[in-house]
Each structure stands twice: as structure tokens, then as C-alpha cells.
Amino acid sequence: MKRSTTVGTVLIFALGCALSVCAQSESNIDNSEIAWQSRDKEHLIELFAVGGRPHNLDVGHKVKILVNHGFAVGYSEERRNPLWAVYKASELLGDAERLRYERPKFYFRDIRVTPAVDGRTFGGGFDRGHMVPNAVIGSQYGSLAQMETFYMTNMCPQNADLNQGPWMRLERWIPQAAEENDHIFVVCGPIFGDKPAIVDRGRERGIQIPDAFYMILVDADQEFRPQPLIRLLAYRFGQETPRDADFQNRQLFGVSVNDIEEATQLDFFPLFEVLFDDWEERENEVEMNHWSLD
After folding, report:
1. Where are the domains of the chain?
2. What is the helix (H) or strand (E) element at residue 138, kind and residue range?
């Protein structure tokens, strides 16, 4: 795909200005901070988060931003869960298509947060559910990046039927969509109720159990032009979603971005709010037709 250097420079300048405006307007309500261990990698977030990283509007639960090789997460030390995760799935070319690493055998504590959740299983029918999938990251960024997806800061207690059923099938479908569309940007995370249940792990208490999970896919076609073409596809899956459920069923799982924002108190794609006059209307729309791979 050919892109104009001049046009690209203009958009980069526009995005920089938009980011400055958003930072000023949201500075009093974005309850987020970058972990000190990630400050030297903060500039990488924009590579994974098209439209800007999510802003946290929940004054009761601070988000600590952790930047890894190939993805970033916004983590709640109070809930002991990631509240959002962002990554990009790209089309793999040549030898990269065959690049696969052995799945790590362990889950790891992340000492960038306090307390650091250990790698034990959650029990009670809950898997250690990846928000950012290991295979997609490993195939693009290598073995170290894949291992970082096994940090417990990338895990939520996720019902085994959901994790090993429609959620897994959707994760595996995304690279196929990336091959068709060059790349797909993903934002995903948990949705909590008012009084979340707690994982029982003996002395280690406080890991909250989400009620549901969301995933937002962004197809940004020629995003380095002044007005990129943006398509959105948003999902919400309850914890009790059956293993054999079809993730492409938009009647059951299709929602709008605004629906997810209201449920999570997160503000997604803040840069697009500046670039597009009709962005609020776009976020209110529910795309009922699942993207097809022609």
C-alpha cells in the first residue's frame, strides 16, 4: 500500500495537536498513571492504540499503565485485573507466517504492580484468561514479547467455557481479519458489577471476578491520511456464555462502543473525538453485520 510522506507528516502533526488538546481537556478526569518502570516506553503506546489509549473516568479505581513489547495494559491494583489491553494484529508475510514459539509453561508475577498476583490458577471454574493473546504477539514481536503475555497483569478470571470457546475463536479469527485488512487494532478487557465476587486463594485475597468481557476491533484503512477510514466492531460476552456460542452472532454479542464505555467508565479513542466531527454518532452505532473475509 503506497502512502504519501507529506500527507503522513500532516496527520502525525494533527495527531500530536489532538493529543495535546485531549491531554489538557482530560487532565482532571483521566485517573491513569504510567508505571515508573514503563516511562521509557510510554511513546510506544500509540503504536498499539489507534485513536489513543483509553482514558479512565472512574475516580474510584486508578489505572496503572504497563507497556510491554508489542502491547500495553491499563491495570487496576485495587481490582487486581487489567481494565484494558491494547494491541495490533498485522498481516504476516514470508517466513513470519511460520514463526511460532513454544507456549510458556508458567504464568508470572508482575513486580511493576503492588501487590503482585502470583501465577497460580484461579480455581472455581475460572481460567487465567489472556486479554492479549500470546500467539499473535509472539508471531509479530518474538519470544520475549510472547512471555510477557503470561504476566498476571494480562490475566482475568475468565469462565473456562468462555475462554476456551467463543473468546478463543474470536482471538484466532483476528489474525485472519488482519491478513484481509493489513492490520486490526484491538482493545479488550473486563466489565465489573457493583459488588464483584472475589477469587478464593487463601491468604491472597482481593482478585475480583468480572461479570463480562468486551472486545473492540478497529479496522483503520489508510490511517496515515488526513481522514482515515475507520470501521468498528464491538462485542460483549457474559461470563456464562456457552462454550459452543458463535462469536459472529451479532444479535447476541454485538454492542456499541458507547455501551462498553458506560459499563466500564473508560473513554475509548480520544484522538478520534478530535479528528472526526461525527465520532460520537459512530460510537453509538451497533454494526450488525460481522466482517466477512472475502
Report:
1. 5-284
2. helix 134-141
Q: CB burial class (10 A; 0-12, 13-18, 19+) of residue 102? A: exposed
- Quote the CA–CA distance of 204 and 118 in Å, as a whole number: 9
Radius of gyration of the CA atoms of the chain, in A: 18
Q: CA nearest 233: which of 292, 155, 168, 160? A: 292
- Angle CA(114)–CA(115)–CA(116) in degrees, nearest 5? 95
Which residue is it, cell 489507534?
A: 50
Q: Angle at which helices 166-181 and 134-141 pack, to 10 degrees? A: 30
Quick: pLDDT tens for 207-225.
999 999 999 999 987 655 6
DSSP secondary structure letters along 211-269: SEEEEEEEEEETTTSSS-EEEEEEEEEETT--TT--TT-HHHHEE-HHHHHHHHTEE--
Q: Structurally, what CATH architecture does the domain formed by 5-284 represent?
A: 3-Layer(aba) Sandwich (3.40)
Largest CA distance in the chain: 59
C-alpha torsion sign, points 194, 49, 62, 37: positive
Cell numbers standing for residue 280: 460520537
pLDDT > 70: percent of the chain: 84
Q: Could you read off the pLDDT of 60-115 as tens digits, one per residue?
A: 899 999 999 999 999 999 999 999 999 999 876 555 455 566 777 899 999 999 99
Average pLDDT estimate for 34-41: 96
Q: What is the pLDDT of residues 192-210, one digit of tens each?
A: 999 999 998 877 778 999 9
Ranked by mean pLDDT, which of 90-94, 117-121, 263-267 comes out on top? 263-267
Q: Contact 155/191 with Cβ under 8 angstroms?
A: no
